[in-house]
Amino acid sequence: MKKRLLILGMIFTMAVSSAGCGSSSSDNAGKTDQTKQTADVQDSQKDESSDSKSDDDKKDTKYKSADEITMDDLMSHDETPAEDFEFNDSADEIVIDKYVGKDPIVVIPDEIDGKKVVGFNKTFSHDKNIIAVRIGNNITEIDRDAFGNSVNLKYLVLGKSVKSIDGGNFSGTSLKELILNDGLEKIGEDDFTDYVDPPLNNWGMDLKIPESVTELHVSDFNLIGKPGSYAEQYANEHADAGVTFTAE
């Protein structure tokens, strides 16, 4: 009898122990699932945070600083959207009155709403934001003082239709590079006060003169051109005005 009771007691003890182990295994499984779920949530939040940060970074770096912008940035830049300009859209052709955008790189479009952009007044005069400008291909003249005192302007590229650049355009700028178009005919005006001069911080800057140019009124540039060209002749005749010549 005692032996039977002893056996039954052992069986009961084993059953209780087994039940306890099952409960522990179940609890551990629950904890594992919970841990996994928590990790998934944290990873998801981490991914969203990373995406959000990436978007914020993009917003913060939409426009490069003045020191980072290069001529390559200007040449590869998209046309500036119409909403960044003020102009009279009731006319058959558009003349831009004002630039109201924030991008320091400006590419004047050839057309806005199917109408040719044929000019811009003193749109950029005294503008402290712009660094680089590319002129549209339907503009034929750069008016007097169009860029005067645009203190941070470094790069300027003319469109293919520009025929003349009036005086007073680059004084008060930080111009480093000016690319003239083939087909340009005249730079500056007859009166000495209407000459085209480089900025004071780049006195003697290089200026490649297209062969199409037949009239110059400039001072303190180093003209680059073909040997025997009008540019060389002008430089020789105006050495007293600080004009020099380098054959390309």
UniProtKB/TrEMBL annotation:
UniProt region (Disordered), positions on chain: 19-78
The residue ranges flagged as biased composition, category Low complexity, are: 19-29
Show the Pfam families listed in the entry: LRR_5
Q: Where is the signal peptide?
A: 1-19
| Keyword vocabulary terms for this entry | Signal
Stretches with biased composition (Polar residues): 31-42
Q: Which Gene3D superfamilies match?
A: Ribonuclease Inhibitor
Q: Residue ranges under compositional bias (Basic and acidic residues)?
A: 43-67
User: What is this protein's record name?
Assistant: Leucine-rich repeat domain-containing protein
What organism does the UniProt record list as the source?
Roseburia amylophila
